[in-house]
Amino acid sequence: MIEIRRIAQLVLLCVLLNASFASHAGAPPVFPDGRVPSLAPLIDEVTPAVVNIAVLSASPEEENPLLQDPFFRRFFGLPDRPEPRLSAGSGVIVDAAKGYVLTNNHVIKGAREVVVTLKDRRQLQAKLIGTDPGTDIALLKIEPERLKALRFGDSEAMRVGDYVLAIGNPFGLGQTVTSGIVSALGRTGLNIEGYEDFIQTDAPINPGNSGGALVNLKGELIGINTAIIGPSGGNVGIGFAVPSNMLRAVMTQLVKYGEVKRGRFGASSQDLTPELAHAMGVAIVDGVVIVDVVPESPAARAGLKRGDIVTHVNGRHVRSSADLHNQVGLTPVGEEIELKIQRASQLHTLRAKIEPIQPGSTRDSQVIPELAGAAIGNLEGGGGVRIQAPVVVRVERGSPAWNHGLRQGDIIAGVNRKKVRTVEELLDALKGAPSPVVLKVLRGDTVFAIQLR
């Protein structure tokens, strides 16, 4: 730890000295003992915990009934048998004793086989423990032998301007390290995942880096690299990582349940802008305004009302509506959350218990071929739900529907941007739908997309 801190100090000193040495044509700065500033000791410390992930999955041809016909395969000049697809990504060992590896859900989605390659070139078969499409996180398990793990850092303690390293497997080249700074915190509204609270960095991130580590200069994991914004999917200095505090909350439930069991809160909100604060006659400018409360929901029973301004959840400051959404969504079912609110000129503390999602009564439950393993019924209301839509009555663990990310209680609100209200409308929308087929799914208080093919 002392050595890592020393390296961090050297790096900062290097930055400060850089300008003064720029005018000299000689060698870079050298310290009295002959050393030059370097991140090498830190990299040696953390890279054994970052792994390369190879995924064998079904090719699009295998999922297309037409192209499974030998006649059509010969007509289109395709091989006699569809060949599986091989893709690559990255992962991070976070528990050496148990062999737990965190990566992105989209890296291993639909995988038939997952092979993890360590820095020492050992290759290990990985078992899927659980996934959470809402945060794009998946947890794998490998044989816990001679492993090294990264410890979690506190992503809440990061500041814009902090130095970070991105470690991963870009373009399948092998382990690669890039450096940069934290460019922004709490990024939302990217429509990448259902729960967004990204760390933005200018450390170069490219395809294949997904699932890799974002590390601070203490050698701590402060994020999992997830997304890139660029004209061709390559690095342009804007990359995003899921913060470590969210990772820990998701991992705890994946270990326990194999999924994240999100519950129902029953309130919607919007950001408190200066203009809205002025119109409401309040002096505070940070927080979120409650715009709707579902009757008989946990929020309603806690005493939350329209117009309340939520400033803190569980002692943590609420920056935006998305922040409230994230904190509520990561609270396990059955646990209470503490809300600090301002109502008019009064301050109040409320407690709401997150409840299981109640799908209501179902009718004519049936299995949909395109979602093998899931039984779908018609939602007739109940539990404060105000919509009509197909609902997942049950789903078999390990089935195609389960692997796509569907869970019991999920409400299917649309197919390819087309709203569906009944199982019959869902079936009609799926018949002959061109690829890609994307379901709009409501789970608890969040809406996200699931791509079937």
In a nutshell, what does this entry contain?
Helix content is 19%, strand content 33%. The protein is α+β, with helices and mostly antiparallel strands and 453 residues long.
What can you tell me about this protein's structure?
The protein has about 450 residues and is an alpha+beta fold. It folds into 5 domains: about 1-40, no CATH class; about 45-140, Thrombin, subunit H, CATH 2.40.10; about 155-255, Beta Barrel (Thrombin, subunit H); about 265-355, PDZ domain (Pdz3 Domain); about 365-450, Roll (Pdz3 Domain), CATH 2.30.42. It has helices spanning about 1-20, 40-45, 70-75, 105-110, 245-255, 275-280, 300, 320-330, 400-405, 425-430, and strands at about 50-55, 85-95, 100-105, 110-115, 125, 125-130, 135-140, 165-170, 175-185, 200, 215, 220-230, 240-245, 265-270, 290-295, 310-315, 315, 335-345, 345-355, 365, 375-380, 390-395, 410-415, 420, 440-445, 445-450. A hairpin with a 2-residue loop joins strand 23 and strand 24. The longest helix is centred in the first third of the chain and has 21 residues, at about 1-20. Residues about 10-25 and about 360-365 have low confidence and may be disordered.
